[in-house]
Amino acid sequence: MKRNYDINSKLSIDEIKKLNIIHNTYKTQREKINYNFNNYLIDKYCFFNSESNFWNLFNKLDNIVDLSDPDTSMPNSLHALQTSEAIRKDNHPDWMVLTGLIHDMGKIIYIKGCPEDGTSVDTQWSIVGDTFITGTKIPDNIVLSEYNNYNYDHVNNINIYTDNCGLDNCSVSFGHDEYLYRLLKYNNHKLPLEAEYMIRYHSLYAWHSSDSYDYLENDTDKIMKPWVKLFNKYDLYTKNDNNVVEWNNELREYYTNLVCKYINQDIYI
Predict the structure, then answer these.
(1) Which spans in the chain are helix H?
(2) What predicted TM-score, i.e. pTM, was given to this entire model?
(3) Looking at the chain, which terminus has fewer C-beta neighbours within 10 angstroms, N or C?
(4) Residue 3, SS3?
(5) Any bridge partners for residue 267, and if so which?
(6) Is 120 inside a domain boundary?
(7) How far is 169 from 225, CA to CA, in rounded Å?
(8) Minimal CA–CA distance to 235: which of 192, 194, 205?
(9) Could you report the per-residue pLDDT of 17-68, keeping only the tens digit for each?
């Protein structure tokens, strides 16, 4: 199933309204997030000094719907459970099940966000959407590439990277992926490297779903890419607003045990 971003007369008024919001989100993202602004966002938001509880934070996902996603209007907390339960149904390792549950949890950044940075519930261009690598040109096959020419790094042909430098040495556009990755690292998680890649790069479609950034890959990136691609099918293709998985006590106990095993119930944000 290919995500549809085309606005045409066959769509309903509500569908057109939703797509206009999506287009505006991506246009602003490409315009605002260049290498320098990306560093500003990381320095400002990846500072973890407030203690909280995992479930208190997870429940904050009830309050946010991804403004860049044409496939669902569900709160992210429900999409998370759909993803993780599909992974569990297919008998993947428990660490991957937990990764499915938390992969979008970085969207809680809106708690300390602001409209000017695109980090609020109503202005999400620094939280959601397909990511890209700043400090170099943006690939032509990225979603809504018509907005690439609004990006400073892109139009000025900036390139600060060397071939095979590795994704870890690249500055991927800021969003919920990078925020959650850094939050988990700060809190000394016990998830494997495969989970880190799924969390940090699941929105970097120009890498894991095409060859656009292959020239930047190191050996570890090449090994990890199939894991991210595997995760991607659960992230994208489990979305169903008409088949919502409901939380119950058994599910809460199961996932609490996974949180205690791989993260901690008390975490800093």
Answers:
(1) 13-32, 35-45, 54-58, 76-89, 94-102, 152-155, 176-186, 193-201, 205-208, 219-237, 249-262
(2) 0.95
(3) N
(4) coil
(5) 52
(6) yes
(7) 16
(8) 205
(9) 999 999 999 999 999 999 999 999 999 999 999 999 999 999 999 999 999 9
- Backbone angle region of 267, left / alpha / beta, with phi > 0 → left and psi within -120 to 50 → alpha: beta
Q: Which residues lie across from 134 on neighbouring strands?
A: 171
Measure the CA–CA gap between 186 and 159, rounded to whole angstroms.
30
Tokens of 197: 């890649």
93 vs 165: CA distance, rounded Å: 30
User: Residue 260, exposed/middle/buried by CB under 10 A (0-12, 13-18, 19+)?
Assistant: exposed
Count structural domains, the chain: 1
User: Cβ atoms within 10 A of the Cβ of 187, count?
Assistant: 15
CA distance 267 to 46: 14
Contact (Cβ atoms closer than 8 angstroms) between residue 267 and residue 60: no
CATH number at residue 178: 1.10.3210
Would residue 15 count as lying in a domain? no
